[in-house]
Design goal:
- By secondary structure, this protein is mainly alpha-helical.
- The protein has 2 helices and no strands.
Length: about 60
């Protein structure tokens, strides 16, 4: 499951980075890609942090 989520995040990250490095060549949907990447990354990292807490909880 993690690998399935990481590939789209890497692709979105590459598009966001390309838009930062070459703003004049950014496609018209670059703003939407940036927002989507930030939201997806936030959700992914939140889920990972919650699962880490569950796994490290002393019993």
């Amino acid at each position: 499951m993690k690998r399935f989520l990481l590939y789209p995040l890497i692709l979105l990250n590459a598009l966001v980075l390309l838009g930062q490095l070459w703003p004049s060549g950014a496609p018209p949907f670059a703003y939407n890609v940036t927002v989507l990447f930030l939201i997806a990354s936030l959700l992914y990292f939140t889920v990972e942090l919650v699962s880490m807490r569950k796994n490290n909880k002393p019993e």
